Write a sequence for this structure.
């Protein structure tokens, strides 16, 4: 008798067809060979190390590092200082704007060269790794966190800038490189050298977060420049101020702003600071125009003593409206040249003083004599109050005070009979400020055809007055 055949209930061939399922694989995000998907959200830090900067307390060094951080904000808003000799930029989202890693490297190197500071640049997913690489003199490019340990293995421990006693203790046990420190047992390393050094290694390799304080540029521009020697030479002062104005122009261009006021202070040894204040009718950021206006004021300035330092203080930055040019160039197919009104006003005020010019400004008031006021040229960005809409066209020329007219038969006369035209405009207002008016305005013509603007008082005895003349 044959033994019954055993049946394996878990064999795949015995299961129904619908129970056999293909293996499930996790869906991988799509990406490009140049930029894998798993790196699209990972940070990428660019470290710019300036080898010539060695003393953090030196004001010249601090100013140069600060200037580089301000310039670096045009590449990314995430800029951090690593004093005394480096600036860090998080540039992952900026690569496609500047031609990738190579394009961004060239752009940042150009900014460093413009400051007269040659730089060593390195890219890494960790800010500490990029910084250590540049301080060791290696301009490497590491895009994946998994490659950090291999790229950092040969770096000397001095590149980490740990306390000297820690470096000395590691050297005694034969640890001279970063790779050797990474191969030590973690528990023993933390026990002998401290948890802070272990956390620093984790930040170096990307195992732990490496937070950096974001650099915030000042909201207002203020710079002071010491002269090489005390001098009252106009050429030396102009050259010093021009370099400060170029810094101001870059400061404003990065923010797409201009200034409406600029103060120049000249410091002396014994006397009080002298200087001048420039006010502009439109937001201004161009260094050449600022220098021309400032020189106009300096020519009229009397110095009590030779100058030892120059200082510029700018007002609050004001958004600068973008201007579009015409389709045709000036003089081409009827193209008109740009109106020189703003430049003329600024130059006259700089040469003659701020009180030399006045402009007429419309005021939202129905009373003709109160619908305008004289004052200094207002900034172009300040629209000010708008004039109230008028029911009729009003004349441009108003008399200093309304002139009483003679009457005959209840009709006004001025150098003969007057002929009234159109419908009257009634104005009743001003009760709140003690200058209440109640008038009916008419347009009239005299015997020579001239158009006049007159009104009749509504309260008795209903006098007629001449108030304006049309052009």
């Amino acid at each position: 008798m044959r033994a019954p055949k055993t049946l394996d209930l878990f064999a795949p061939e015995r299961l129904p067809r619908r129970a056999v399922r293909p293996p499930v694989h996790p869906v991988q995000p799509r990406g490009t060979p140049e930029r894998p998907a798993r790196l699209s959200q990972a940070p990428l830090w660019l470290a710019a190390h300036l080898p010539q900067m060695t003393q953090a307390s030196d004001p010249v060094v601090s100013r140069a590092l600060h200037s580089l951080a301000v310039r670096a904000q045009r590449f990314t808003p995430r800029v951090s200082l690593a004093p005394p000799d480096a600036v860090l930029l998080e540039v992952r989202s900026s690569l496609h704007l500047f031609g990738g890693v190579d394009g961004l490297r060239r752009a940042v190197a150009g900014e460093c060269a413009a400051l007269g500071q040659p730089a060593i640049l390195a890219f890494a997913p960790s800010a500490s790794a990029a910084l250590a690489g540049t301080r060791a003199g290696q301009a490497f490019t590491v895009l994946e966190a998994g490659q950090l340990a291999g790229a950092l293995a040969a770096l000397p421990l001095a590149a980490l800038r740990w306390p000297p006693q820690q470096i000395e203790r590691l050297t005694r046990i034969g640890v001279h490189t970063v790779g050797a420190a990474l191969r030590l047992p973690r528990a023993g390393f933390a026990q002998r050298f401290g948890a802070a050094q272990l956390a620093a290694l984790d930040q170096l390799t990307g195992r732990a977060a490496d937070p950096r304080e974001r650099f915030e540029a000042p909201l207002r521009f203020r710079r002071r420049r010491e002269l090489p020697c005390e001098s009252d030479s106009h050429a030396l002062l102009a050259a010093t101020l021009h370099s400060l104005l170029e810094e101001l122009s870059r400061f404003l261009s990065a923010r797409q702003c201009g200034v409406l006021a600029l103060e120049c202070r000249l410091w002396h040894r014994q006397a009080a600071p002298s200087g001048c204040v420039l006010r502009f009718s439109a937001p201004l950021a161009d260094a050449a125009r600022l220098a021309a206006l400032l020189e106009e004021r300096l020519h009229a300035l009397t110095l009590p003593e030779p100058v030892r330092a120059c200082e510029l203080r700018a007002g609050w930055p004001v958004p600068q409206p973008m201007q579009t040019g015409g389709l045709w160039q000036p003089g081409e197919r009827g193209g008109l040249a740009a109106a020189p009104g703003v430049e003329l006003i600024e130059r006259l005020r700089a040469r003659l003083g701020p009180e030399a010019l006045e402009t007429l400004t419309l005021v939202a008031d129905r009373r003709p004599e109160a619908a305008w006021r004289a004052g200094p040229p207002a900034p172009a960005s300040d629209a000010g109050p708008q004039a109230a809409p008028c029911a009729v066209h009003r004349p441009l020329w108003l008399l200093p005070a309304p002139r009483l007219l003679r009457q005959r038969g209840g009709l006004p006369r001025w150098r003969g009979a007057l002929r009234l035209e159109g419908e009257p405009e009634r104005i009743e207002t001003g009760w709140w400020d003690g200058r209440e008016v109640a008038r009916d305005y008419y347009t009239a013509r005299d015997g020579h055809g001239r158009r006049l603007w007159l009104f009749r008082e509504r309260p008795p005895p209903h006098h007629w007055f001449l108030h304006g003349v049309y052009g």
